[in-house]
Each structure stands twice: as C-alpha cells, then as structure tokens.
Design goal:
Length: 80
C-alpha cells in the first residue's frame, strides 16, 4: 500500500484485488487504513475484483458497503 500511495499521481486509487486468494483481519485493516488515508488526502479509493475469502469477510463484518467496489478495473475506470 505504501508504494501505491507514493506513486499516486491522480485523485483516484484503484486497487485490483482479483488475484487475491486470501485476506485475514490484518489485510482488511490495511484496506480500512487506506480508505481513511484516502478520505484525509482527498483520494477516491476504489476496490475491484473482490471475491472469495475477502468478499465473505467484508460481507460478514458489514464492511462491504464501506468501500466503493466495482467488479472489474474497466468498470471502475468508466465510473471514475
């Protein structure tokens, strides 16, 4: 995440999580921290490709609606 923030040159950060096979509570914590940082810095954080383990955990924790989520990067880019 640090590299993503340092290289950011636009007010939008799209994270493609489609290759993610597992995410535990520390990973979700990182996503929440990124959301918080985005809000503080005026950066729109968009998550794409959420599936499997991560989708289940975010849904069970009631956090899926905290994030701006799109099925694919192309759909996120269209909305951005």
């Amino acid at each position: 995440m640090t590299r993503a923030w340092k290289s950011l040159r636009a007010p939008i950060l799209i994270l493609d999580l489609s290759a993610l096979t597992f995410c535990d509570s520390s990973g979700i914590g990182e996503l929440l921290q990124a959301r918080h940082q985005g809000l503080n810095e005026g950066v729109r954080l968009i998550l794409t490709g959420i599936q499997g383990n991560l989708a289940r955990r975010l849904t069970l924790a009631g956090l899926i609606h905290v994030f701006e989520v799109f099925p694919s990067v192309s759909e996120a880019l269209e909305a951005a």
